[in-house]
Design brief:
By secondary structure, the protein is α+β, with helices and mostly antiparallel strands. The chain is built from eight helices and four strands; from the N terminus they run ααβααβαααβαβ. Helix 2 packs across helix 7.
C-alpha cells in the first residue's frame, strides 16, 4: 500500500501555500481548530512529551488583550484575522508524562531531575515542532496561515500565561486568506542532498 499523498494535497500543504496578511470575512469555527489540533497531536515529539500549548485568540476582548504586545506592522493583520494562535510550550510538560508515557512509570521523575536548560531545550524544540504540525494540519482542513514573530514574548506571557509554567513561542493568524496585496512568492534554497562518507 502506498503512503504517498497526491499532488493536490502537496500543493495545499506546501507548494501553493502562502503566508497571508489579509483575510476574508468568513469565520473560523472552533470545530475546525479542534480538527487541526486532533491531527497535530499525532506528530512525534521527544519521548512523546507533547509540550505545546495553544491559546486561540478569537473574541474582540481577547484581541484587545493581545494588541498592545504586537509590533506595529502586525497589528492590522492580527486584529482582522478570524483567529490567532498563540503557540507556546510548557516547561512542566513532564506533569503529563504518566498519561503520555504509561509504559515508563519513572518518566515524570526522570524529566524532573534533568537540568533546567535541558528541559527548556526539549520543551522549545518539540513545542516548535508541534506548532509546525498544527500549521500543516490547519492547511489540510482548509485554513490559511500567517505565522509571525513580531511581538513581545514577555508581554504575551504576562497577559496570557501569568502564574504558569507556559512560555510563548510565536503567533499564527488563521482564517481564509485574501489575495489582496499578496506579495510575489520568494524563492527557496535549492535542493541539495548531503551525505556523510
Amino acid at each position: 500500500m502506498s503512503h504517498a499523498v497526491n499532488d493536490e494535497a502537496l500543493d495545499i500543504l506546501f507548494r501553493k501555500a502562502r503566508t497571508y496578511r489579509k483575510w476574508r470575512s468568513e469565520a473560523v469555527t472552533p470545530q475546525m481548530l479542534m480538527a487541526a489540533y486532533d491531527l497535530m497531536r499525532w506528530g512525534p515529539t521527544t519521548n512523546n512529551t507533547c509540550p505545546a500549548r495553544i491559546v486561540f485568540v478569537m473574541s474582540q476582548e481577547a484581541k484587545e488583550r493581545l494588541k498592545p504586545h504586537l509590533n506595529k506592522g502586525n497589528v492590522e493583520q492580527t486584529m482582522t484575522a478570524p483567529a490567532t494562535a498563540i503557540f507556546a510550550y510548557d516547561l512542566k510538560f513532564y506533569d503529563q508524562m504518566p498519561k503520555l508515557s504509561p509504559t515508563n512509570p519513572t518518566s515524570r521523575e526522570s524529566w524532573m531531575q534533568k537540568p533546567q536548560a535541558e528541559i527548556e531545550e526539549a520543551a522549545f524544540r518539540s513545542g516548535t515542532l508541534q506548532a509546525g504540525y498544527f500549521m500543516l494540519a490547519a492547511r489540510a482542513v482548509g485554513l490559511d496561515c500567517g505565522a509571525m514573530s513580531g511581538f513581545s514574548n514577555a508581554g504575551v506571557d504576562k497577559e496570557f500565561f501569568a502564574g504558569t509554567s507556559v512560555k510563548s513561542n510565536f503567533l499564527c493568524n488563521l482564517g481564509y486568506g485574501s489575495d489582496e496585496g499578496l506579495r510575489p512568492r520568494a524563492d527557496r534554497k535549492s535542493t541539495r542532498l548531503n551525505s556523510s562518507h
